[in-house]
Write a structure and sequence with these properties.
Blueprint (H helix, E strand, L loop, with lengths): L4 E4 L10 E6 L5 H8 L6 E6 L5 H10 L2 E5 L4 H7 L5 E4 L16 H14 L2
Parallel strand pairs: 1-3, 2-3, 2-4, 4-5
Length: 123
């Protein structure tokens, strides 16, 4: 893992003045997501939750996070908590949610690519 990433799972939390992202997705996606984020020089905290993660921890991490990225196939319950927030991005939705949230992506990796492109464009 890159030196500029802090990877956090339950029960831990990491409080720092840096961008943080909560991913609610299958654990096997974490390596590719962190590998992509590691190409950036910006320090970030990555919170990772799955369908078995404690709901209190997920809500706390989501409140701390700059962004929340949700795989609907992993957990619909958490989707209902975060979907109406501007900082929420989602994929694998079984229904069209564009009236509630237009931040639909195809994978967690796509979110990271867009984030890094935006970072480069804004210097």
């Amino acid at each position: 893992m890159s030196d500029n990433l802090m990877f956090v799972t339950q029960p831990d939390l990491y409080l720092a003045d840096q961008e943080s992202i909560l991913f609610i997705s299958k654990r096997n996606r974490a390596d590719s997501v962190c590998q992509l984020l590691g190409t950036s020089t910006q320090n970030r905290t990555v919170y990772w939750a799955t369908s078995t993660t404690n709901p209190e921890w997920v809500i706390t991490a989501g409140n701390l996070a700059t962004y929340v990225v949700i795989d609907f196939q992993e957990n619909l319950f958490y989707s209902g908590i975060f979907i109406d927030k501007a900082k929420c991005w989602y994929y694998n939705s079984p229904i069209d949610l564009n009236r509630i949230n237009i931040n639909q992506i195809t994978t967690a990796e796509e979110f990271v690519v867009k984030l890094l492109e935006n970072e480069q464009a804004n210097g």
